[in-house]
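Memo to structure team: turn this sequence into structure tokens by end of day. - J.P.
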Amino acid sequence: MAANHGVDLVKDGRGRLITNVIDNVSWSTEKKLKEKDLWTKWHDECVELHCVQDADRLDAIGAFGVMRCAAYTAITNNPIYAPMGDPKQPYSAIQHFSDKLIHIRDRLKTNYGRSLGLKRHQLILDFLSAIEDEYDTLAPSHAN
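Reply from structure team:
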């Protein structure tokens, strides 16, 4: 179809850009590259990479992100919530929120992504607060 419209993603270089963005979009890839001092000027300045990274990260937070995390936790047979000290606690959905999801807002790269991230981040914080309130109501001896 691209040939019918005079578009050649290989000749004009966009194919390489697209594959570079795909190869570098994930949080774990970014972390590994930075740890190995392989993060480049391109990574810092590529607007297309930043847009795709923000979209990927925004997808993980907010209302749909909460549902997605709960669904994944359920299909992997891990608990949604486990109190501190429970051996399953490190594998719980709530722990994933603490380990990763609440940090996403601070790692968004575009102005638009950051503006969308504010509301979604607050939803995550409100959700975690509600979980703690409900757990404390069900288990009043639970030590914070």
